[in-house]
C-alpha cells in the first residue's frame, strides 16, 4: 500500500489502473479525490481511496444543543442563526441555516408575548427538536438566552436582583434566561 496527501479535486488514479473507492469519484476515465486526506492504494484489490485527515464539519441532529443569534422576532416565533453545536468546540457547522423557536417551545408555562422572552441580537442556547423544519426549544432550565443587549442603547445587559438591567442607561428587560446567562459556558 502507498500513501500520498491530496486535496479535493486532485487526480488519484485512472479507471484503467484502479476502481474508485471511498472518498473518490470518477470523471472521464480519471479518479479524483472528494476530500483532503491520504491516498490509499490496494494493489491486490486494484482499488484507490482517500482517507480523511481532518474531521468533516458537524451536522446538526435531533437533540443537539446549539447556540445561535436571534435574527428576527415575530408574533409567534423567533428565528435563530445557528453558530455552533455543543461538544464540537469552535468547529464550523455544516450548512447551519436559520432555525425557529415557536412560542410554545419557549417555556413550560403559557407565553403571552414572545417579545418578553426573546429579542433581536440575543445569543440563545437551544435544543434541536426537529431537523426537517429546523425547530428549536429553550423550555428547559439550562436553555434560553445566554447573552443579551439593551434595546435602548445596545450595551450588554447584566443580571441585577434577578432581572436584566442595562449598566449604561438603567433600562430593565425581561428574557427567558439560560441557567448559564453571562458565563459564556455552553
TrEMBL record:
Domain of life: Archaea
Compartment(s): Cytoplasm
Binding site for Zn(2+): 150, 153, 166, 169
Keywords: Cytoplasm, Exosome, Metal-binding, Zinc
GO cellular component: cytoplasm; exosome (RNase complex)
Gene3D superfamilies: 2.20.70.10, 2.40.50.100, Nucleic acid-binding proteins
Family from the record: Belongs to the CSL4 family.
UniProt gene name: csl4
Function per UniProt: Non-catalytic component of the exosome, which is a complex involved in RNA degradation. Increases the RNA binding and the efficiency of RNA degradation. Helpful for the interaction of the exosome with A-poor RNAs.
UniProt KW Cytoplasm keyword: yes
One annotated GO molecular function: zinc ion binding
SUPFAM superfamilies in the record: Nucleic acid-binding proteins, Ribosomal L27 protein-like
GO BP field: RNA catabolic process; RNA processing
Protein name: Exosome complex component Csl4
SMART domains in the cross-refs: S1
Native source organism of the sequence: Methanohalophilus halophilus
Self-association and partners: Component of the archaeal exosome complex. Forms a trimer of Rrp4 and/or Csl4 subunits. The trimer associates with an hexameric ring-like arrangement composed of 3 Rrp41-Rrp42 heterodimers. Interacts with DnaG.
Pfam family of the protein (one): EXOSC1
Residues in S1 motif domain copies: 63-141
Matches recorded under NCBIfam families: PRK09521.1
Amino acid at each position: 500500500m502507498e500513501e500520498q496527501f491530496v486535496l479535493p479535486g486532485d487526480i488519484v488514479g485512472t479507471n484503467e489502473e484502479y476502481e474508485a473507492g471511498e472518498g473518490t469519484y470518477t470523471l472521464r476515465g480519471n479518479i479524483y479525490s472528494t476530500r483532503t486526506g491520504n491516498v490509499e492504494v490496494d494493489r491486490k484489490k486494484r482499488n484507490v481511496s482517500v482517507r480523511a485527515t481532518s474531521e468533516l464539519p458537524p451536522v446538526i441532529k435531533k437533540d443537539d444543543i446549539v447556540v445561535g443569534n436571534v435574527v428576527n422576532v415575530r408574533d409567534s416565533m423567533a428565528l435563530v442563526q445557528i453558530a455552533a453545536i455543543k461538544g464540537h468546540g469552535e468547529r464550523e457547522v455544516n450548512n447551519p441555516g436559520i432555525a425557529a423557536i415557536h412560542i410554545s417551545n419557549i417555556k413550560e408555562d403559557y407565553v403571552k408575548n414572545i417579545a418578553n422572552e426573546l429579542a433581536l441580537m440575543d445569543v440563545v442556547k437551544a435544543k434541536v427538536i426537529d431537523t426537517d423544519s429546523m425547530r428549536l426549544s429553550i423550555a428547559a432550565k439550562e436553555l434560553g438566552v445566554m447573552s443579551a443587549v439593551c434595546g435602548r442603547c445596545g450595551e450588554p445587559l447584566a443580571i441585577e436582583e434577578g432581572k436584566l438591567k442595562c449598566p449604561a442607561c438603567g433600562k430593565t428587560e425581561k428574557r427567558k434566561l439560560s441557567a448559564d446567562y453571562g458565563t459564556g459556558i455552553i
